[in-house]
Amino acid sequence: MTIQAGQETIIVEALINGQNVKSLSQLAKENPTNPTEIVGYFPVTTKEQAVEAIEAAAGAFKTWKQTSIDERIIMMRKAIEKIRAAENEIVHLLSREHGKPLYDAHGEVYVSLMWMEFACNEAKPALQEEIKEHENGKTILSYDSIGVVAAISPWNYPIALSTIKIAPALLAGNTIVLKPSPFAPLAAAKVAEIIASEFPAGVINVVHGDADVGVELTSNPYVTKIAFTGGTATAKHIIKAASETIKDMTLELGGNDAAIFLESFDVHDERAMRRIVISNFLTAGQICMIAKRVYVHRSIYDEFVGKYIEAANRWIRIGDPFDSNTTVGPVNNLKQKNYVLGLVEDAQKRGAKVILLGQILDQKLFDQGYYLQPTLVLGCNVHDPIVVEEQFGPTVPILPFDDEEQVIHLHNESIYGLTSSVWGKEKDAISVARKLEAGTTMINTAAVQGLDVRFPFGGFKQSGIGREYGVEGIRTYTEKHVINVPKTLDLPYIPE
C-alpha cells in the first residue's frame, strides 16, 4: 500500500506471499460524505491471483503450523503495537472511506485491539493440550491447526470484523487469505498489511475483487475453513460453494435484533433513553448487533415515545465525520441508502407515521453525501417489512405490546436470532431474556455498549453458524484431535 501526500489518494494492492501484486484494473472508493471525492483505489484481483494467494497460504502453512504458540504471540503483540502507533492514520482513513464519525472509528480500532490483546492472553491456555488418565488408560486432547482460512469481512466494521478472524486464526497456527468488502477495502487492507509485516511471507494474504474471487475462496480444495461475516443471502451461496469439499465454517450473519421494554422500565431514566438511542443509530444504524425493532409495553408506550424523541433530538447530530459535534455520519453506500429509503417509504404507504430525528449540522453537506436523517416509525403492523427485515440503516420502528407472552412470540418468530435486549427491573428482564432465541441478550443496554469480547458471540437460526470472540472464538480455528492410549486391548464382550 502507498499513501500519497495528505492522504489524498490511497492505493491498495493485493498481498500475496509477502509481496504486493498489481492488478490489471482498479476500482475507485468514494467518500460517502462527498461521493465526488475519491479516497483511494483498490484492485480487481483475478481468479488466478486468488489461486496464487491460496497456494501461498497452503505452502506457508507447512512450516507455520510448527512454530510454537509463544512465537506466534510475540509476533501478534508486535503487530498490535504497530497498529497502535498508526491508529490516528487508520482512523482518519476509515472515516473517509466509510463515513463513520471519528469517535466511532476510534471505537472500532479500540474494540479490534481489545480483542487481539484478549486472544494473545488466552491463546496459550485455550490451545493447551489436555491429558486425562482414567481407569481405561490415558486420553490426550489436542487443538490442532486447521489449515488455510478464507476470511471474508463486511463493510460496516471492516477492521474489527477482519481482526476478529485474523488474530485467532494465526495464533492457532493457521494461515489466512483475507478478502475485505469492496465498500470499505482500504483501512482493512492497511491493518492486514501491518499485521502481515510481523509474520512470515504467505501466512497472511489479502485479495480483493468480484464474485469469482469469492467463489474461489469458498470452493478451492486447499481452503479448509471459511470465516464470513455478512448477509444471510450471501452465506447461502457460500454454503453451496463449500459443500463439495465440506469445509469448516464460522458464519456471523444478519440480525433483526429486538429491544423489549417491560412495564417495569423507568421511562424517566435519561441515561437509559440515551443508551437505546445510541443502540439504534450508532454507525448510522449499520451494525449487525444494533437494536433494529423496539417493543414497548402498552402501559408506558406513549410516554416512552415522547422521552425517546427528546433523547434522540439531544444526541443525534448529522454532519461531517471529522466534525467533533457529529454523532451520525452518512450511510456507507448509495445502494444501502436507497434500500433504507425504500423501507421507510413502504411503511408510510402502509399508514405508518415517520418522525425525523436529530439536527442536520450542514445542509449542503447532507445533500451531497449518502446521508439519511434518522427516523422513528410509529403505527406499523408487526409483520410490515420495516419490522421483519434488517434495515441496516438509521431508522427504527417502535411498537406496543400487551404482555410478555406476546412479545416473546414476536421476538422468536423471526428467522434471525443474533442479539436482543430486555429493559426493566433486572429480575423481570432476566426472566424474559431466558425465553428469547438469541445468541446474546443484554439487560438494560444494547449493541456494542453491551459487547464483551471475553464471551462467545454468534446467532441462532439464520443469524449464523458457530461463535466468535471468547475462548470459543480461538478454538473455532482448530480441529480437536483425540489420542487414546488404552490400558488394555481386551474387551469383555468380544469372544476369544
From TrEMBL:
PROSITE patterns: ALDEHYDE_DEHYDR_GLU (PS00687)
Entry keywords, A to Z: Oxidoreductase
Record keyword Ribonucleoprotein present: no
Entries under InterPro entries matching the protein: Ald_DH/histidinol_DH (IPR016161), Ald_DH_C (IPR016163), Ald_DH_CS_GLU (IPR029510), Ald_DH_N (IPR016162), Aldehyde_DH_dom (IPR015590)
Domain named Aldehyde dehydrogenase: residues: 26-481
Active site per UniProt: E252
Claim: tRNA-binding is one of the keywords in the record: no
Family per similarity comment: Belongs to the aldehyde dehydrogenase family.
Protein name: Aldehyde dehydrogenase family protein
